[in-house]
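Before relying on records like the one below, remember that each one covers exactly one chain. Contacts with other chains, cofactors or solvent are not represented anywhere in the record.
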Amino acid sequence: MYCISVKKIQMKKVFPFIILFFVILSCEEGSLDEDITIVDDDQEIVPDKEDENTDPESNKGVLYIAGSYNTGGQEYGAYWTDSNNDGKWDRTDLDDSRVIHDIIVKDGIIYAVGETTWIRGDGQDPALWINGIKTELDAPNNDEDWGGATAYAIALHGDDIYISGNYASKKADFGGVSSACYWIVNNNNPQGKLYPLENGVSSDAYGIAILNGQPISVGWYQKEHKIMPAKWVGNKRSNLDGKNDGEAMDIVVDGENYYISGWTDNKRQATHYYPTVWKNNQSSRKTLKEGKLRRNEVSSNDREAYASSIIAKNGNIYATGYTYFDYSVTSASYWTIDFSENNPVNEITEFNGGEMKDLVISDNGDIITVGSGELWINGTTSEVIDPAFVVYPNAITISE
């Protein structure tokens, strides 16, 4: 096991076996109560910037990993850090969270979004946690037994917090129809003001970014039996591809340009998904190089490849994702992408097994990816996030 810090990357050997035994024993016998701080629902959500654990200066340049972990058949939302460089990823459980989908840390304040614990007959609600304090986001039908909703991604703009996701727009024969939306959270709307992007149409807004004060959400919507990759500028929808099914999974703004990543299929024919990217107003896909490392392990030509996350750093574009050749045969990968030409030039770095969900680039140029319960640096150094539990990381960020 190795210790990883963005400020200074070090290798430290530790011996977790005795600790692991007691962690497992404790989880079997007890509960997670001692790891969770229960917060009164009426508590003010404005974070305390003077909190000693979130000091803006000492907290800069620290990696945060967000997602969920499983124990006792239950899933719990959390984030992990190694801020003290002791080689151990310390977990912070978030009150009433089932899963965290995204996280941002800025000026000592930790923002996380996801969904609350699923309750039979009540579903789950979209939520925002600021320094651990939960706020359930306002949406119609949240209190209905078919009204579950989700918050997927977060973006900050001035004093406003933008969150993309879905809400239950209407009742259906089996549950509710989840439709794409975004919220703006601020002092005037502490539980978020909902902006529906679709109504009565199955859809999701997986990612969101702000360009010139305008939110751009990305995701998909259903048209007849087609899954249409789409973006919404404000609330105006545009298709990203007219020939292929697919989903837009992430978006990043770099200067006056924005880039989107996701997947598209093989003209709605055989199961063959391509890792895909778009720039600005492109209405047709640009596919990335496909993973081939484990291709010879399966006989079928079917495969599903995703570019699940995209970022920009110093004028360069990076994406990460994975390929399913079979449910037991996968390969993780990341791409470096040059969009200076009409067709983006890209190079793939591929790994045997696993899946990469998100990535960041450190100030010294290290490509840090996360997925399958592990973290990689430049694809050569991997570290198990939490050896005591099965961890499902969804997002990684560097505190600013």
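Residues 240-356 form one domain.
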